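Recall that a protein's primary structure is simply its ordered list of amino acids. Everything else, from secondary elements to tertiary packing, is in principle encoded there. The following example makes that idea concrete.
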Amino acid sequence: MLDDLDRRILRHWQSDPALNPAELCERCGISAGKTARRIARMQDDGVVTGVGMVIDWSALGYSVEVSLRITLDKTIARAFDDFIAAARDVPEVTEIQTFLGRVDVRLNIIARNMAHYQDIYRSQVLTLPHIADIEALMLVARIKAEEALPL
């Protein structure tokens, strides 16, 4: 699917997403046109789905991060769909993951402080539909958070 040149483009772009097209093609040692065609093909193929920014939530005053492991009432046919639709509407939910096993869903929640988290938990999380059980894990330290792939 990807050849060595595609991987080289992705490695450089991944290491510095702020590179402009001229800098990227210079680092890759190829022409601007070739770089643009390769990137367009990888976007069309769904390899590159977007270019974004990373926001440090703590710099914006969010100092609490909690991971909620949720088990749903699976006797209800639309439990997953209803729950996920409602969880998407909670602004402080930064990530939703589904699993196979005892835990069905994991929500990542950010809050400014413990009082703010408690308010989110009571007024928004506990009102989500079809919850059978919740386990909360408070983040103490993020040791590794790498989005880059080993290309």
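Residues 57-138 form a domain with the Alpha-Beta Plaits fold (CATH 3.30.70.920). The beta strands are 64-72, 93-98, 105-111, 131-138.
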